[in-house]
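Hey, resending since the last one bounced:
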Amino acid sequence: MEGRPCLVVGGGPVAARKARGLLDCGAAVTVIAPEVCDAMAQLQPLTLERRRYVAGDAGRYRLVVTATGIAAIDGAVCADADAVGVWVNCADDGLRSSFILPAVHREGQVSVAVSTGGRSPALASWLRTRLAGQCGPGLAELADLLAGARRRLHEAGRSSEDVDWAVLLDGPLPALVEAGRLTEASAIVEAAVGVDIAP
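The C-alpha cells again:
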C-alpha cells in the first residue's frame, strides 16, 4: 500500500479507524465526507474533501473503503468501484466488499492480524486486543534482535534454518526483551545461534 492512492468515503469514527489503518500502511489517503469527526480531522497526512461522494470518484484510486453507515450511499460507492475494477471494502457489509480488512495490532515491523472472514468485525477486534495484550510490549525490539541474529548467520555463511527459533522464543527471551534487559537477551540469542550478534 506504500504510496498508493486510497479513498475512504465517510467521516465518522469507523471511517476514521479505516483511514488510520491505511495511513499506517503508508497509503496516500483521501477522505470524502461532508462532515468529519474529531478523530478523522486529526489524522495526518490526509487529503480531506468536505463534500458528498460523486459517481466516478472511485475510479481515481487503487482501493476504496466506504464507511458512511448509510446503506444507499455505501451501496452506490461499492457499485461504482466494482464497475471500474477498483477493490472496495464496505465497512458494515462484507457481502458487498471485494476484500475484507482484518483487525491488526502493529508494533514496529510486527503485525498481528485477526479476521473472521467479515462475519464479525467486533469479534476480530476483541481477539486482536486480547492477542496484543498476551504478546505484551517489546515485539518490535524482539523482531529487531532476531533479525540481527539472522543477518549475522547469513554473513557467516550459515543457514538460519538450522536454529530452533521456537525453543528460543519459548524460553526467557521474550520476557527479557519486554523488561528491557536487552544485553541478557542478546547473550541468550548469541548462545543459541553460535555467532556474535553485536552490531
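The chain has a mean pLDDT of 92.

Sorry for the duplicate.
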